[in-house]
Specification:
This protein is mainly alpha-helical and about 300 residues long. The chain has one domain. Helix content is about 75%, strand content about 0%. The two termini are about 15 Å apart.
Length: about 300
């Protein structure tokens, strides 16, 4: 009904904004820990996923105590092994890729892979894009490249491959989440199902263990807050986003991270940042309007 559409759009916009802020925070936390480095990539991933598991299990158990109907539901009632394997693959390849990639190059490869994988998978399942959606994707991605390209360098082959795998895995994880009706239960189960993979990775981490208190804290915050809570919000937001919209809005993550640097680190606002942000936002708007036009035209024919 028409009167219910505005609240739905507002809710989707708010959830998406919160999720993107969490992604940006997660990106910053990962860079702080892995670029110096103050913790090795394997240990960072292990602590990140373990803290995410603990955080989500605690939230689910506390919620079950308040709601007697859900008290008997197991922690693995939602999610899927497919989503969990993609979550683990993203987390581990992302961490190891940043050992040999700088921030700009890593972001370009990661979000490029996310865009390509999500759009191709969406097209392969029969979803067609309106010409305006293609235009919006190109404009938004051009703005993203304009923002990140000056800080990019020639990537190492291994780092490039790992980041492509990370972006593709995250794209699949996102598309799986579009069918989620219980974001908390699904996200918790997905994290918990990564534990067998985490146990194997922990054995690898012992070989080249490099830990510091700051590194452990950054990994824990990344897992318990930016990842666990952020992914719940993202799964909630996906109910109101098409696959193309979900792909293109993530290009805002580096912009949000850059704005965070301006607000919290006293960095200067550059014309490049302003221009890139306008291109990305404009592209997203075109994608949203293109999807609305396509749905409206399809509905009018039926």
């Amino acid at each position: 009904m028409p009167e219910t559409r505005p609240p739905s759009l507002i809710k989707t916009a708010l959830l998406t904004s919160c999720a993107l802020i969490a992604f940006a925070a997660n990106s910053v936390l990962c860079r702080l820990a892995l670029e110096q480095p103050i913790i090795d990539a394997a240990s960072f991933t292990v602590i990140r996923l373990l803290s995410g598991c603990l955080s989500l299990a605690l939230i689910v158990l506390l919620g079950a105590k308040r709601d007697r109907r859900n008290r008997r539901q197991p922690l693995l009632a939602g999610g899927s092994w497919r989503a969990s394997s993609m979550l683990f693959l993203y987390a581990v390849t992302f961490s190891f890729a940043y050992i040999s990639l700088d921030t700009g190059t890593g972001a370009l490869v990661l979000f490029g892979a996310v865009q390509v994988s999500m759009i191709l998978i969406s097209l392969s399942t029969g979803n067609r894009l309106h010409y305006s959606e293609w235009l919006g994707v190109l404009i938004a991605f051009a703005g993203f490249v304009h923002l990140m390209l000056p800080s990019a360098s020639r990537p190492s082959p291994i780092g490039f491959l790992l980041m492509v795998l990370a972006g593709t895995a995250w794209g699949v994880y996102t598309l799986v989440g579009r069918g989620s009706t219980r974001p908390l239960a699904d996200t918790a189960a997905n994290f918990i199902r990564t534990l067998p993979f985490v146990a194997i990775l922990a054995l690898v981490a012992v070989i080249q263990l490099q830990l510091s208190l700051k590194g452990v804290l950054l990994a824990a915050v990344s897992g318990a807050l930016a990842s666990a809570i952020g992914y719940i919000i993202w799964y909630s937001a996906l109910a109101g986003l098409s696959a193309t919209q979900a792909a293109v809005v993530q290009l805002l993550v580096p912009v949000i991270a850059a704005l965070g640097g301006v607000i919290f680190a006293g960095e200067q606002i550059s014309l490049r940042l302003v221009f890139s942000a306008m291109m990305i936002l404009g592209g997203i708007l075109i994608v949203v309007l293109g999807r609305y036009y396509l749905v409206r035209r399809t509905t009018s024919r039926t």
